[in-house]
Design goal:
This protein is of the alpha/beta class and 251 residues long. It has ten helices and nine strands. It is globular, with a radius of gyration of 17 Å.
Length: 251
Amino acid sequence: MSLVQVSEQSGIARVVLNRGKVNALNEALVGELTSCFQELESDQSARAVILTGQGKFFSFGFDIPEFLNYAKSDFERYLLSFTQLYTHLFLFPKPIIAAVNGHAIAGGCMLATACDHRIMVSGKARISLNEITFGASVFAGSVELLRCCVGHRNAERMLYSGAMYSAEQAQELGLVDLCCSPEELPGVALSVAQEFGRKDSEAFKSIKILLRRPIAEEIRKREKQSIREFMDIWYSEGTWKNLEEIKIHSQ
């Protein structure tokens, strides 16, 4: 079964993460997402994209139990592909609307911050870059994406604390742009995507590149080193012990 469901109607593509209960990110899902957005980039009928998750999770983040079985070289390969994915989304020439339908944690939050606009459901859903709470670091790119959303000082607060934020709290920080009920999310996301889609596509692409390419170039200078640092901490004794205690119910 496909881990990414794609549909398109009236110029709006809808990309749905579809991996078990929590849409945990693994190599296969990242690979399908990458291929999906490569195809949408050249699809002239798609003027905007909605990225969301099935069920009650946008994405829990990395499938940690699965990666505990990876050799270091395999895990590094995955990290390179994941960071390349969010950089691709960050520079994607068409508008991407993140319809955050539930929890968006760690890697899931990183995907959301790479989008152009974020709409999150109110209620129990939480969004966070909580890596510090289990002894892990983040990536150079993920820090820059977060800064773009919330500014440097709020990024510091979020990353140092690893706090979980409701939709309302995230909107106050600038991490999300709109809050709505779960029932309203599909319609609100479609309305925002249509509004973006009506803009001149070449003008939007040009402005987005002018805004974001300098940031992406800076990310590329530091990303590989940040991945190496991430791995050094990930495989340290204390962090590894914490990781072994994390359970994910993917099915």
